[in-house]
What we know:
mainly alpha; two-stranded antiparallel sheet; 7 helices
Amino acid sequence: GWSSEVLHKWVVQQTKVHFDLYESFFSKHVYELIGVPIVIILLFMLRSVLPSLPNPRNKMFWLIVSCLIWLFVLSGMHYCILRQPAPFGVHPQTHSVTFFHPMTSAQYAFEGIFVATCQLVASILMVVLVEIYPKMQGDEHDKIVVGALLAGLFFLSVLFVRYLFFTKQHW
């Protein structure tokens, strides 16, 4: 992405006019200003939801919480919080928007979220194939079609993540 420092350096090189670059408080602390209220809201929501659950061992609730935590970890949000990368970039020659960073050791925020979502979809499809599909009632032909569709979607999402990985690593 184009950070303010990169644009500042480019303007100084092109115009030979030196000036100071001041960043606002919001631009320096955007993740803290957005992330802390979201965490506080989620904690209050969790505090209000837990007593109203009929059974504290509600599997669906903990499945959703686990998926959200897993999505957070896989998307590299900890990387985004520490390094504060741009959400997306602009290709220097074509000026088109790009969501995948060209360097192997860096990422845009949307890149991590997108790949983690693909992995989460593949995982959910695998759980459906293993747990729900064998218990499915109905016509044998319908069951075969649904199973083939689920397996196809699973393999497509896995192959897509694999393709993105190999494209990113230049293998």
